[in-house]
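Q: Please design a sequence for this.
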């Protein structure tokens, strides 16, 4: 004979595998476990801990110097760019693809602020290769190559 783990009443059992005297006690115990886990999850701090100091030669340091040079540090876009750069520098919870996405966002934001590199950040590698090929062939804007008609026919 064993006792119910929820209400403590003695219960006769054929085997000693039973933990609860019935479905009601089993459901009550489950609700208690679920509510305890939910309370523990909500008790976590809302603000994440402050990240460590930035690396001296990281993306955020280079961006900060560039923003200071153009007097954009205090702007909203400048602060957004710095937040992205810090997240790229720390990258503690981001995967490789997450960091790549952050890099694209930072590059687009830099473009909107007029700080983008000469290369178009929105141009994918295939489009870039096609553009260079067309430039070498003497064509512009991807226009078709027109071959002269020789008049020779069957």
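A: Design:
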């Amino acid at each position: 004979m064993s006792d119910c783990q929820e209400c403590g009443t003695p219960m006769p059992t054929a085997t000693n595998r039973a933990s609860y005297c019935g479905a009601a006690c089993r459901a009550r115990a489950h609700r208690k476990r679920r509510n305890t886990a939910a309370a523990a999850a909500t008790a976590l701090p809302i603000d994440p801990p402050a990240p460590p100091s930035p690396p001296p030669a990281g993306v955020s340091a280079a961006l900060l110097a560039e923003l200071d040079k153009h007097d954009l540090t205090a702007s909203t876009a400048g602060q957004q760019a710095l937040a992205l750069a810090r997240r790229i520098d720390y990258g503690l919870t981001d995967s490789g693809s997450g960091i790549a996405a952050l890099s694209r966002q930072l590059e687009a934001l830099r473009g909107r602020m007029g700080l983008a590199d000469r290369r178009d950040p929105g141009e994918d590698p295939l489009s870039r290769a096609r553009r260079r090929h067309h430039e070498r062939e003497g064509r512009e804007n991807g226009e078709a190559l027109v071959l002269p008609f020789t008049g020779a026919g069957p």
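Q: Thanks. Anything notable?
A: The chain has five helices and two strands. Residues 23-42 form the longest helix (20 residues).
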